[in-house]
């Protein structure tokens, strides 16, 4: 068995005195495409932000490559939820993608030819190179999503976290984004993706993390998409139930 690259142990996170995550445990190996599922407000975004070190846990440990999170700052790339970004901020597509290189460029230096090359390649991969001079506010939702993926790819991290990358994009863009995620995985990366659409979860991901404050299940879609578990977590909120359930108990 390959060593795990992300270890989460007894993780508990709260906002003020309201717990958002309670006693979460899991380990993730290299080269995995992982989906996080759970209803609204279940702590999915909080889990990503905690893995990035943006939120300090109340309790528990996160290890990246066997080392404390603090030693890995900047080694994890992040695509935030589109609704969390200020799209009026005056910045071009190329400038956003170049932000993926900032951690490698000393403050007294300009971006190098190599940085420009990496950024151009990242923009090409997600097909936004022809938009590079455009302001991000002018773009469609799917294009904005891809620009932030370019930034994440330019960071050349082996771990990528994406928060609902398929939200509000059309079917063709969803396919294109999925292809980029899959080829990133093929190239050796581990990706953790918050996903809101249970009907595609089994097709898209190798493993699923089902949370609602607590971890309800972790493993292959077959293990996670069980009728009983989904009932527990989503209660009455699932309408198209029979399409989603892969396995029943017993
Ligand atoms: N900055 C914040 N301050 C206070 N409470 C928050 C904050 N962010 C999220 N929460 C609360 O924490 C819980 C989990 O939120 P979140 O991680 O955003 O869930 P999800 O991404 O699954 O929808 C929710 O109850 C939400 O209201
Ligand atoms: Mg969220």
Which short descriptors sum up this protein?
single chain, 250 residues, alpha/beta, Rossmann fold, 2 domains, 6-stranded mixed sheet, 4-stranded antiparallel sheet, 24% strand, globular, binds adenosine-5'-diphosphate, binds magnesium ion
Written account of the structure:
This protein is an alpha/beta fold. It folds into two domains: 1-75 and 159-166 and 175-250, 3-Layer(aba) Sandwich (Rossmann fold); 82-156, no CATH class. The protein is 32% helix and 24% strand. The chain is built from nine helices and ten strands. The chain has helices at residues 44-51, 93-98, 113-125, 141-154, 171-186, 198-204, 221-224, 227-234, 241-244; strands at residues 6-15, 18-28, 33-37, 59-64, 67-68, 76-79, 159-163, 190-194, 207-212, 214-219. The strands form two sheets. It has a six-stranded mixed β-sheet with strand order 6-7-8-3-9-10, sandwiched between helices. The protein has a four-stranded antiparallel β-sheet with strand order 2-1-4-5, covered by helices on one side. α5 links the parallel β7 and β8 (190-194). The longest helix is centred in the C-terminal third of the chain and has 16 residues, at 171-186. The chain is globular. The mean pLDDT is 92. The protein binds adenosine-5'-diphosphate and magnesium ion. Magnesium ion (MG) binds at residues 44-45, 81, 163.
